[in-house]
Amino acid sequence: MLELFLIGIGTGNPDHITREAEKAIRQADLILLPHKEDNKAELAQVRMTLLQHLCMDSSRIAHFDMPVRRQQGDDYDQQVNEWHDAIAERWRACLSTHLPAGHGHESGHERGRVALLVWGDPALYDSTLRIASRLGLAKSQVKVVPGITSMQVLCSAHGIALNDIGAPFLVTTGRQLREAAWPAGVDTLVVMLDGQCSYEQVAEPDVDIFWGAYLGMPQQILMQGRLVQVKADISARRQQARQQHGWIMDIYLLRRRS
């Protein structure tokens, strides 16, 4: 039977790999390794370095090119669905090509343990589970290995608590912050997937920001302070880092001062 392991690898730091994740990686017959545009080759290299750290044989790694998401038009949900369909097809092609065949199994009935290395945790703002559902596997065939989230690493790096005493917090996206503004009833926001620097739109004077990029990696960047005072500096540093590396992964926490 085919088993698909979705393994949370934290922010790519080998020290963030749990024993459960390491065991799942070592036991995999095949590891699917995505490659994005040339200017994001460093992302694939982070995964490769992690696998080399675990002494994985390169013959067990299947490389594939990630399809590019269409970003024209205002049909965002349809764009994402099309993109996920295309990714699932790349997975199917890898399984058909690289898993053992010729043992009496028809195409589409491959056997073996397959692993995908997922940034952070597969359950938090990640689409790997939704893409996996397109493969038609039974629920018992898909295994999730939790990972350290960038949210946890951000708070650790800044030495702050995620929530105030007995208070709720909200994890959201830059798109939601731009379109829906700051939700009522919560004073702490964790914002992910924000390529548009949506914090710039927050005009409240008594808000602190704790920002981090490349968390857990050698190139980690941390900035914090009163939002109105540091947001321009954060945006400038973010742009500089993106130009330098060709990509950026960042996250931030916004908190109203009590």
Describe this entry's structure for a reader:
This protein is an alpha/beta fold and 258 residues long. It has helices at 19-26, 41-53, 76-98, 128-132, 150-158, 174-180, 227-245, and strands at 2-8, 30-35, 61-65, 112-118, 142-145, 170-173, 188-192, 207-213, 221-226, 250-256. The strands form 2 sheets. It has a 5-stranded parallel beta sheet, with helices on both faces. It has a 5-stranded mixed beta sheet with strand order 6-7-10-8-9, with helices on both faces. The protein is globular and about 60 Å long.
In short:
The protein is α/β, with parallel strands linked by helices. The protein has helices at residues 19-26, 41-53, 76-98, 128-132, 150-158, 174-180, 227-245; strands spanning 2-8, 30-35, 61-65, 112-118, 142-145, 170-173, 188-192, 207-213, 221-226, 250-256.
Q: Give me the CATH fold name of the largest domain.
A: Cobalt-precorrin-4 Transmethylase, domain 1
Order of helices and strands: EHEHEHEHEHEHEEEHE
Number of helices: 7
Largest sheet: 5 strands, parallel
Number of strands: 10
* Beta fraction: 15-25%
Corresponding CATH superfamily of the largest domain:
Tetrapyrrole methylase, N-terminal domain
Shape summary: globular
Output the radius of gyration: 20 Å
Architecture per CATH nomenclature, i.e. the level-2 architecture of the largest domain: 3-Layer(aba) Sandwich
Uncertain regions: pLDDT < 50 for 5+ in a row?
102-107
Q: What layout of secondary structure does this protein have?
A:
Blueprint: E1 2-8, H1 19-26, E2 30-35, H2 41-53, E3 61-65, H3 76-98, E4 112-118, H4 128-132, E5 142-145, H5 150-158, E6 170-173, H6 174-180, E7 188-192, E8 207-213, E9 221-226, H7 227-245, E10 250-256
Parallel strand pairs: 1-4, 1-5, 2-3, 2-4, 6-7
Antiparallel strand pairs: 7-10, 8-9, 8-10
